[in-house]
Design brief:
This protein has helices spanning 13-22, 35-53, 55-60, 122-125, 132-141, 145-151, 177-180, 185-194, 199-214, 232-243, 259-265, 278-281, 284-289, 312-327, 349-358; strands spanning 70-76, 82-91, 94-102, 110-114, 155-159, 226-230, 249-253, 296-299, 334-336. With 361 residues, it is of the alpha/beta class. Helix 14 (312-327) links the parallel strand 8 (296-299) and strand 9. Helix 9 (199-214) packs across helix 10 (232-243). It is globular.
Length: 361
């Protein structure tokens, strides 16, 4: 055995956890639980969250804002869904590709369906399964929730998040499996941080600009706009809904748990999760509390490995923070807890849609 073999490693992880705990939820709402105090906190917390995401910097330097709409093609699927492939600009020199799914018959409303990781962006969510790699991920994660909503009668907008699908940066472009399904989050996050903002802020900015665009369309209703997302799509749904009141109902799947267990201990997760100072300012229950009192459904698989070593206990702690906020409005939260590991589940989706209609504000 070599004399140079390392037998002990001196890591910094315990120091990071100590620092997080020392400053834990420094901007979270801790009471008094009455409406005036909570309303003041919501306004201040939204401003703080917007600041750490870098949204003011992103807006300042966005340049000329012209959607420059380009409709690539329109097809009709075997299910009668009109599928529109459209491009818009969210900044002066930044393009967002979309699939817009128009249902047959009566239109029940509009959802933005946001894509997570490892599914080729909008393709999996819109159910575009011509590529066998995408088909496999749809089957594994039930990723085609956008198409499913369209079949239920909703107009569904499925965008490529920045760095996914048609928006991959140079190093990740190509049709190979290790590129086609993946994203450019690492490259974008590193560059964004050095420029004074965050990839998370760019994702939220793009969703806000998408909503601006939807408001210009006579054929898409926006009065009861919903957002739905799984995993990284749930992450986008959480932050965008916290900061944009035009989103009136929210479903977050596979992305609701405490930061320490799920993003500090499991710190090999994607760079898009990480925002300067976030883990000391808020926990996830605080960010979700900014959605109150709008209808909110959360889906937590009972054995989702991303919930961390304590599993559902890590989820429950955040729900307790969130429920105190919703209790101020006498409003419930729909919490779906399917069996299994990390995946989207459709079994109770119709029930969740009925919940949204009942709790509509």
């Amino acid at each position: 055995m070599s004399d140079n073999l390392i037998t002990t490693y001196y890591t910094s992880h315990s120091s990071l956890k100590r620092r997080m705990r020392k400053n834990y939820r420094s901007f979270g709402f801790k009471g008094p639980y009455e409406m005036k105090a909570f309303s003041i906190w919501q306004d201040e917390a939204k401003e703080k969250l917007s600041s750490v995401l870098g949204l003011q910097v992103i807006e300042r330097d966005a340049g000329r804002l012209d959607f420059n709409e380009r409709i690539e093609d329109v097809t009709v699927t075997n299910d009668g869904i009109k599928q529109e492939h459209t491009y818009i600009d969210t900044e002066e020199d930044v393009t967002m590709p979309l699939f817009i799914l128009h249902p047959q018959g009566e239109n029940k409303g509009t959802f933005i369906a946001l894509a997570g990781h490892n599914g080729a962006g909008k393709e999996s969510v819109a159910g575009i399964d011509r590529n066998p790699l995408v088909r496999e991920k749809i089957e594994k994660y039930n990723y085609d929730y956008g198409l499913y909503l369209a079949k239920l009668g909703y107009t569904v907008i499925c965008p490529d998040p920045r760095g996914f699908g048609e928006r991959r940066e140079k190093a990740m472009q190509g049709d190979e499996e290790d590129k086609y399904l993946k994203s450019s989050c690492k490259e974008l996050s590193q560059s964004a941080l050095a420029l004074g903002f965050t990839l998370q802020g760019l994702l939220v900015w793009d969703i806000m600009r998408l909503i601006d665009y939807i408001e210009t369309r006579d054929d898409i209703t926006i009065e009861d706009l919903g957002v739905i997302g799984f995993s990284g799509g749930g992450m986008q749904a959480l932050y965008a809904s916290a900061l944009d009141q035009r989103i009136r109902k929210v479903m977050i799947s596979g992305y609701f748990y405490g930061f320490e267990d799920s993003l500090l201990d499991l710190n090999s997760n994607c760079q898009c999760n990480y925002v300067p100072s976030l883990f000391t300012l808020f926990d996830m229950g605080d960010i979700a509390s900014l959605i109150a009192p709008r209808p909110l459904a959360i889906q937590s698989c009972l054995r989702d490995h991303l919930e961390g070593r304590r599993g559902m206990e890590n989820v429950t702690e955040q729900l307790e923070i969130l429920k105190k906020s919703y209790d101020l409005f006498n409003k419930p939260i729909f919490h779906d807890t399917p069996e299994g590991d990390h995946a989207f589940h459709k079994e109770r989706l119709k029930e969740i849609l009925a919940f949204f209609e009942k709790e509509r504000i």
